[in-house]
Amino acid sequence: MAINYPNPKKTTTKLINRANLGMTLEGDIEATNQFYLDKQRAVIYKKPTPVQVVTVSYPARNKAKITEAYYKTPSTTDFNGVYKGYYIDFDAKETSSKTSIPLKNIPEHQIIHLKRIVDAGGIGFMIVYFSVYNEYYYLPFDVLYEHYLSSINGGRKSITYETFKTLAYPIKFGFNPRIDYLKIIDDIIIPSLS
Amino acid sequence: MAINYPNPKKTTTKLINRANLGMTLEGDIEATNQFYLDKQRAVIYKKPTPVQVVTVSYPARNKAKITEAYYKTPSTTDFNGVYKGYYIDFDAKETSSKTSIPLKNIPEHQIIHLKRIVDAGGIGFMIVYFSVYNEYYYLPFDVLYEHYLSSINGGRKSITYETFKTLAYPIKFGFNPRIDYLKIIDDIIIPSLS
């Protein structure tokens, strides 16, 4: 007799609803950070996207209008801030793959940046969203770094979903906060530091 | 008999030299942070200036050209990062006054931001440059905040140079690093935390 597995279409429906609400991974994290800020739990911001300004005109007094500019590649990660005195630094990535996240999705300069952060005593990590499963993971930097080092030495160029199941920490999606990554920091990361 | 005070013009000459070299307070701090980064002492960056992008054109594939944008007021301070596991957050201000720095030079949103930082366990401060004296000071957030609270309750709207002499910490200008504010954090701030 066949086991009645939950219909995977349910997950898909959820995703469509989420998309219909105009939510994005970045938007969900920004809403989470705003929640933390409002509750006075943490002060964590998204850094502005760096822009190389080429031409500025002044159509009115004290009103600078940028008329030519280009996006620059950020040299760091998108998010940083402070929680319980700890320096927090991370970026967020989404993958539509069922089996892994390709390491090419994570720019090398972000890995170098996070390595410096961890070496300076900060907490560095990635939030990875597997869209097909609608699952969020807290990927500690050391796990990311091992896979990165392995990849540049000829190893596989991705981190498998199975690795997330064993070495990363699931973050439950909620109403408010939406992506409660501080819970992982409270429950798992801070206790491991002391 | 008149006391032969050092000629104040000497300070002016120094300033002109500094200006001739194209240095700015912000540039000096960025050079300092780069020195700390290169020496693996700390990871502290200036946040990009936020820009509100209105129109983007695509003159070539994968090449986004911003054709209309405006500078936005940052909601935080300019600099943040991590040192010895401590979260560091500050801004830098310059005054040409001989007697004080006006509090209107420090936007209220920066004071609110730094208050949140300190409440969350971070190290918050201002670097203040008195250009007439060519002197740099580390102004701890608590001193700034007392003066801010006093000013909104009818007190004076500036922090006097005398206050800097007694409650702030001088930072020596050097060749490399130029503005060694981590020395103040090492010698005075970290010992006061434990």
Automatic annotation (TrEMBL), chains A, B:
| Signal peptide coordinates | none
Enzyme class, top EC level, equals hydrolase
This chain's source organism reads: Paracholeplasma manati
Catalysed reaction equations from the record: Endonucleolytic cleavage at a junction such as a reciprocal single-stranded crossover between two homologous DNA duplexes (Holliday junction)
| The protein's name in its UniProt record | Holliday junction resolvase RecU
Positions that bind Mg(2+): T76, D78, D91, Q110
Cite the EC number: 3.1.21.10
The protein's site described by Transition state stabilizer is found at K93
